[in-house]
## 1
Amino acid sequence: MNENCFDTPATLKNSVHDIRKDFPILNTQVNGKNLVYFDNGASSQKPQAVIDSISNYYSTMHANIHRGVHTLSQRATQAYEDARVAVQTYFNAAHSEEIIITRGTTEAINLVAHSFVKKGDEVLISGMEHHSNIVPWQLAEVNLKVVKVKDNGELDMDDFKSKLSANTKLVAITHVSNTLGTINPVEEIIALAHQLGVKVLLDGAQAVPHIKVDVQKLDCDFYAFSAHKMYGPTGIGALYGKKDLLNAMPPYQGGGDMIKQVTFEKTTYNDLPHKFEAGTPAISEGIAFGAAISYLNGIDWTWAAQHEHELLAYATEEIKKIEGVKIIGEAVHKAGVLSFVIEGVHHYDLGTLLDQMGIAIRTGHHCTEPLMQRFGITGTARASFAIYNTKEEVQIFIDALKRAIKMLK
Ligand SMILES: Cc1ncc(COP(=O)(O)O)c(C=O)c1O
């Protein structure tokens, strides 16, 4: 693989109509209607460059990576490691070995829960966490403390300050809530935690599609994310961790690649990042993750942030005009997520009817059951936006919503 494989294009894309051309699935018809895909929070669609990367990998270079002496293995290894460097550069990590390739956010958090904390340690999470940032800590049998969520969906920072102490081993909080859209004040959280010597893990699953994250600027200790929510393939993601912390942590899983030497008496472990990457990884997905990063490098992020902000603002304004609709999550700082409930209408029925009209939204508890309990609801309907969505699609969604409500009430 040559050094240009994850090049940044000379001009940045800042037109939704140009961007839409990169995503072939957007031309799909669903139930006889043009697809309106508003389930990006669950998983975003893929640009042609990512699809081609997977096909190209299997057509031209597939072999198992690391330690292979033959050409294909070396090519595949180079491409895989190039992708790691592309991720490192994109997130501005200081070292490529600080990027541990995982199956996604879930595995990244499980890694930290397994290797960084021990039974009885105090871990501070929030009431808006995804199950992936709750259950791993319960499995690790830590002493879990939970920061309250305010009625408008913002984190209760007074409660955070009262629960944070020098006894806290780790703060593990979502950067952006998948259900509420809330962008948490992570800079303040990190500063407060670090004043007390407490480490911070951010669940970046929902932040990375919307925010250009710089891990050194944030100064977080760990950052977990999934490729499939940022226009990359499924089954791959990463844990960013500061090198000194990762070096001090024991391996998460045992197997090939993570060792230096094995005897029946004793095993010595490989260096970072391989110490945490046991077994044959998702090679094609890893390389295609690099292609997704390359695609994102070609996007004008100032434009993208403004575009998504406009979509959210327009959808919010229009949905508020519909009688009986209540938005769940009205934080001042929000990413492109609109969760709502409708009086007298079950979210599941709504989702099913909208699907008949070609519109994909998500319904249910969004893997945030404690948050649903906090708001006294069983679930919400959630529209979540991506860079390829348009204002026209929002209008189609709003019109369809009005029709669906009439039919269901
Ligand atoms: C906030 C948040 N954290 C974690 C996850 C888990 O991500 P994955 O299933 O890709 O590991 C999700 C997925 O929806 C999420 O929204």
## 2
Amino acid sequence: MLPSFIRGAARHVLDFVLPARCSACGVIVGEAHSFCADCWTEVAFLGIGGCSTCGLPLQATEADSCAVCLARPPRIARTRAAVAYDEVSRGLAIRLKYGRKVAIAKTMARFMAPLVEQGGERLLVPVPLHRSRLWWRGFNQSALVATELSRRIGIPAAPMVLSRQRRTPPLKGMSASQRRRAVSGAFRVREPAAVRGKTIILVDDVLTTGSTAEACARALKRAGAERVELISWARVVKPSLLMR
Ligand SMILES: [Zn+2]
Ligand SMILES: [Zn+2]
């Protein structure tokens, strides 16, 4: 491991040699891992507002938690996403998934980092892929993001503690109960000692219905995790909620 000032210097040399490019459209920009002015206006940043539990925008009548979380507290105690899922954020997620672009993971981590809370013993755990898919693709995109996030915020990342035991079908188009059944028992904690008593922060690239993350949280809690949170790059949000 090189001393950090040498690594920092090496990074500056690279920054000097290669001009920074917009993470979405590729035009040259002034700052690395950022967006150009045009793309910046396209991205819907979600921030830390909204329901204190699920992070979705609140209705005018709701104070701290949304009615859904109050009625039935979810297994994941805190969910946050950097941006809404749209053309731009989807583009980044796809390029990360199929291109192993570490620069993309760095961009995502940059905007996810301010949304992660500190305190107590915490561990970043990426949502795992099944080994057949891992073999096919060669890497887990969420693990790349977890590694970059760990570098930024200093919370250790543990990409191996959770595993996907079986392949799960695409959840798109399924009802809530069908989704639950499809992912039930799909995840297993390989090293319970690594999660026991800790706050686990699940790391995902795109959050859609949350069924997969819920199944991960269930396995982690069973293995002794004290609390489970979730941070993702993009999240599917109903356009009507974004308008408020
Ligand atoms: Zn751009
Ligand atoms: Zn909520």
